[in-house]
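hey so i finally got around to running the thing on that chain from the lab meeting. sorry it took forever, my laptop kept dying and i had to restart like 3 times. anyway pasting the input first so we r on the same page abt which one it is
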Amino acid sequence: MDAFYASVEQRDDPELRGKPVVVAWRGARSVVCAASYEARKFGVRSAMPAVRAERLCPQAIFVPPDFSRYKAVSRQVREIFARHTELIEPLSLDEAYLDVTSSITALPSATATAEAIRAAIREETQLTASAGVAPNKFLAKIASDWKKPDGLFVIRPHQVLDFLAPLPVGRLPGVGKVMEAKLTAMHIATVGELRNVAAEELEQRFGRWGRRLHELSLGIDEHAVEPDRPTLQVSAEDTFESDLTLDELEPHIRRLAGKTWAAHEREAAGAHGRIARTVVLKLKTSDFHTLTRSLTPSTRPTSAEELADLACALRARVERPAESRYRLVGVGLSGFVEQDSFVAQGDLFEHG
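ok and heres what got predicted. didnt touch it at all, straight out
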């Protein structure tokens, strides 16, 4: 979906159309959830501090987010997807992978399917969506950004190598600033230059990730579209009005642990019946460095109180000066396993 949250706001309030809209709460601690294309012209981007967005675009109209409305539209869009395929892998409220190898409809091609979906979204939601059509997931993701907004871009199998060759290596999934700097040090700036390096050399330097880099440079991605991806982590986090020390975080950790535990209970009661074993504490320092500490205890937490106790204890693993201050804290649960297998393992240890 194109500038999804901002587009929903512009659709529902005609006075916002054609104007720079920033979906965010105002305030020193707020971040941008979404920016309309009119605001993006000024450099405003998602996840940017709201105060910076206001400096870049003083005439921006700030609108507080309304996630219940965004979720309702997201459900509408997914219902449109489901008319064409059962293989839908949602990434977020506004993005998904679809495998249309075996389409429910009689449309002649993936491109025709993408066009039909975009037309239905426009007609039924009065919003626009961009689509990428390609032989695999990572290429489709790149293609979906190619002609935004309201665009469709197709990479056919015989075009893959030529399409990838001139792209900066930073366009490959998983290549962040650190990896990009390492590749630059090897005089590798484009995907084509990466492709010319032997897979063995990349693997020697970067391990299994090096082999994966070589595959991506050739347009190879064997990851299937997973319609019902299991949850990897549930979490809750909060940004403070004023930075706090580690000692001052306990009441916030306990409050967030309650939210996280409620989400975990919903996951445990769901179709998969999965439970988490690992506790995660996330911190963001006053100078925007993110720290995470985790623990997989011998017996998993069984209540919000136990989760809170474990998360609070993880503060002892933060090796920073006592006067350090933090602007954000989060509590998470990960390491999900099926309840049945966890019980079976417990029985094995008890009777072994």
